[in-house]
Amino acid sequence: MIDPDVLARATEEVHRATGDPVIASMFQQSMAENLPAVAERLPDGTTFVLTGDIPAMWLRDSAAQLRPYLVLCADDPALQDVLIGVLHRQLEYVAIDPYANAFNREPNGAGHTSDLTEMSPWVWERKYEIDSLCYPIELAYRLWRITGRADVIDERFTTAANAILELWTVELDHEARSPYRFERHGEPVTDTLVREGRGRWTKPTGMSWSAFRPSDDATQHGYNVPGNMFASVVLGYLEAIATELLGDPALAARAKDLRAGIDDGIAQHGTVDHPTFGRVYAYEVDGAGERLLMDDANMPSLLSLPLTGYAAPDDPTYLATRKLLLSPENPFYYSGTHAAGIGSPHTPPGYVWPIALAVQGLTSTSAEERQHLLELLRDTTGGTGQMHEGFHVDDPTKYTREWFSWANAMFCELALAHAGRRL
């Protein structure tokens, strides 16, 4: 799905930057095989993208898997067609149910049909995550800026954008306004919401509530701070599209106003004065004083703020937060004989995620750190040559998910960034 000449040039750039033929080979193989393994062009011109080993399309993962291809698509019109097809399929899904995070290829009723929520035969899973709605807007903006093609933004975008704005506005006051409920019985507590599906009690903050994290685990305090930061960024993208392309001042104003309120909420509720690290960002808050200091491997994360566009890599609050996250103060930071990095409550203790290691490199200002992390990823595949969901810090042959498309994509994006090619 990627032009062989485009890929060959990029592989040579990676080889020169890293001086490592194994890293270059892993990059070439992942870029050649990753997208064809998960993407299916449908008769209507859209593209369905599997989330690795699960037969459904996640809004978040299907966009995140495309990031390294976006870096290279300017010179590859056929690849652009595939990526635009992914966007259009995402937008159609958002119009079906903006609270859903994962969808079926067709309305076949597959997925978590026993969940207590308003399911549709199109919906595989209806775990509402604020970040799931950020990714289609970001993908639309990047494709528009990179390609300049008139077919990127169509009526599907306006329909989805209005649905997203409406949902995020409703969820500014989840307690009083939200119709969303979700319960799943017989599974870990992280897979369901308490209080008959409403989730833990929250107080309005200016931020928009989220039921689940990017890991698909339930939020502890309702307001996921990195998710709201990503929402702020993409609301800026939406304002630009509405102003420069659509000529829709009302849509632009709605995006601008909502972004301002979310930014105020982050400033007032999303930071903490830590006795060791100084002023840092919290991972989650509830609006009533409860704050959670941690990070999760899944993106958007606090570690990924420069990557999602909310903070500069040298921003003082970000740097203080980064130091906390890459220390034992983060309960999901693990260090062992083979690796050190951020894991997730979604996987067993002691398992570091390649996604988080790639994000660490992509947000670093140090070429030496990027090189080190690429070599670490090279050496911790457990002999498979593929990125996993997570691997044990003392034994990389112990891992979860033998093949994880999103992690492969993040490895490729880090390799490209090290070679000077960035989004």
From TrEMBL:
SMART domains: DUF1237
InterPro entries named among the record's database cross-references: 6-hairpin_glycosidase_sf, 6hp_glycosidase-like_sf, GH125
Pfam family of the protein (one): Glyco_hydro_125
GO BP annotations, alphabetical order: carbohydrate metabolic process
Protein name per UniProt: Glycoside hydrolase family 125 protein
